[in-house]
Amino acid sequence: MRPAVKSPDALKQRLIAAAASVAAFALLYGLLSGRDASDFESGPAEEARGYYLTDATLTEMGQDGRPRVIVHARSIEQQLSDQSVQLADVQLDYTAQQTGQWKVTAERGRMPPDHSAMLLAGDVRVTGTEERGSAVITTDELEYDTRANFVQTAQPVTVRFGSHELRGRGMRADLNAGTLQLESSVNGRFTP
Fold it and tell me: How far is CA 95 from the centre of its chain?
């Protein structure tokens, strides 16, 4: 009796299986022999973060024992690379002894590592109390100096007192004294 002739398709399948096995062993050997993690490419690493808070409220007490500054934020995240702090959906409530309460809101904020300022951006609004005329200041960016209690910006700004409105570029306001200075391009509308 003669042995059966193997079909060409079965022979091709065996050759492909043998080649795949050799390739798999070569790949496995390459992975296990002497390669370390630095040999492989990886995408950009996310910035390492420290603490992370959601729906957070931070309170700084004044010398009289009452809250001086209260910061509310949807999220607060410390960046380990430079120790700065990122905030989202920020509301800052500040109480001045002479001028009462001020509320500052913004879409986002950033505090540098020394926490000497809060840099606010995105639909920034500063609102005073009704007994002081309900002043409303709007701008795109604002820096709040946490030590001197000044707010300032170099951006266009609008200041409203009831039906009166002033516009300008650049502003510096002392929240304790209740003074405001527009820097340039000032124009206004005063309706009776």
Answer: 24
